[in-house]
Design goal:
The chain is α+β, with helices and mostly antiparallel strands. It folds into 2 domains: 163 residues, Gcn5-related N-acetyltransferase (GNAT) (Aminopeptidase), CATH 3.40.630; 150 residues, Roll (Archaeosine Trna-guanine Transglycosylase, Chain: A, domain 4). Helix content is 33%, strand content 28%. Strands 1-2-3-4-5-7-6 form a 7-stranded mixed beta sheet, with helices on both faces. β3 and β4 form a beta hairpin. The C terminus is likely disordered.
């Protein structure tokens, strides 16, 4: 969760989680409480700093603080021992890098010499190639080092990390891995994101997508990623039967439905749940520019397992959002017999 001006001014639970996690470092940094209550608090309120809290099963396990500027600084990163095998270091470094992409020319941080020696490969993978003794020493019993890199190098290294950050890692309610990208026209997409339309109709689809997350791509004129959803069920059947059970959830007229399904013996009702809209759609052109790729708009739907480019794009979109969407639940009507199909492949936690 990102911690910003509103959290600092109103003292939200996330703000207090950030402070509590940071103050756990007081035995090694005696002045860290004073630093947080003056500089960090002031910076959060002014927008000069951003805080982050990482949660696993709603339990705060990681905290970070970023200072913005032409020379930006990763001020603090603390990860609970129980969570250090879950790629949270990669996640937080990437998040902070993306958050200063409009202003930073260089990025720096200080760290204990022991940590540099122990995790040198990690820092090198983000283009921090060397470290030297810092002019100011805040830590007890361990020398602090200083490391710095150019923003273009750091950004390139962070983008290369995106496909690796998969599994159950998520930024707020935005997952870092979805199984597919699904194209939806602007009108139906608006109703899906508003929770009005919970069933999408396709003349061709696969039941292997059940229980998987999908990224929702708005076609022209949106031309960008607009949110995410979970495919609760994929039900195949004759058009009349599908209409009988799902008409209110499809959110279109019978004339429109018949026009789309004309000539089909079997169509697919895709039941969507856990819909999380993005605050703003992320244009395809912006994703292509940030990643240095020529991304083609998905046709109907595309599997991410066959496209490293789109896999990177949906992870980047999640990182750029970091906000909570609206949850919507939809039950499949009782009595509707689903045609047999392959069971979904569930990916294990990263």
């Amino acid at each position: 969760m990102r911690i910003g001006e509103r959290d600092a001014r109103t003292g939200t639970d996330d703000f207090h989680s950030l402070r509590d996690l940071i103050l756990q470092s007081e035995p090694s940094y005696p002045e860290i409480g004073r630093w947080f209550d003056s500089r960090v608090l002031q910076g959060l309120r002014s927008g000069q700093r951003t805080g982050y809290v990482g949660l696993i099963n709603e339990r705060p396990v990681a905290a970070a603080v970023l200072k913005r500027g032409l020379v930006s600084k990763f001020c603090h990163l603390k990860i609970d021992l129980s969570a250090r095998s879950k790629s949270l270091g990669d996640l937080f470094f990437t998040l902070m890098t993306l958050d200063v992409r409009h202003q930073a020319k260089r990025v720096r941080f200080t760290l204990p010499e022991s940590v540099w020696e122990d995790r040198k490969d990690f820092f090198n993978s983000f283009s921090f190639d060397s470290a030297e003794k810092s002019e100011r020493q805040y830590r007890l019993f361990d020398s602090e080092l200083f490391s710095e890199t150019s923003f273009p190098r750091l950004f390139g290294a962070s983008c290369n990390k995106l496909p690796q950050m998969m599994g159950q890692l998520a930024i707020a309610d935005h997952s870092l891995l979805t199984g597919a990208v699904m194209s939806v026209q602007p009108g139906p997409l608006e109703k899906i994101l508003a929770g009005q339309k919970t069933v999408e109709i396709r003349t061709r689809f696969s039941q292997r997508w059940e229980k998987q997350r999908v990224s929702l791509y708005g076609t022209h004129p949106i031309s960008g990623l607009s949110g995410e959803a979970t495919i609760a069920r994929v039900i195949a059947g004759p058009p009349d039967r599908i209409w009988e059970f799902f008409a209110p959830q499809i959110c279109c007229t019978r004339v429109e439905f018949d026009g789309y399904t004309s000539g089909r013996d079997v169509i697919y009702a895709i039941v969507l749940t856990d819909v999380h809209p993005f605050v703003d759609p992320i244009p395809l052109a912006q994703l292509s520019h940030l990643l240095g790729l020529n991304l083609a708009a998905p046709q109907s739907y595309s599997s991410l397992s066959n496209s490293d480019g789109w896999l990177s794009a949906v992870v980047l979109a999640a990182a750029l959002q970091g906000s909570i969407g609206v949850r919507n639940k939809q039950k499949v009507p009782e009595g509707f017999i689903n045609r047999p199909g392959p069971r979904p492949i569930i990916r294990s936690s990263a």
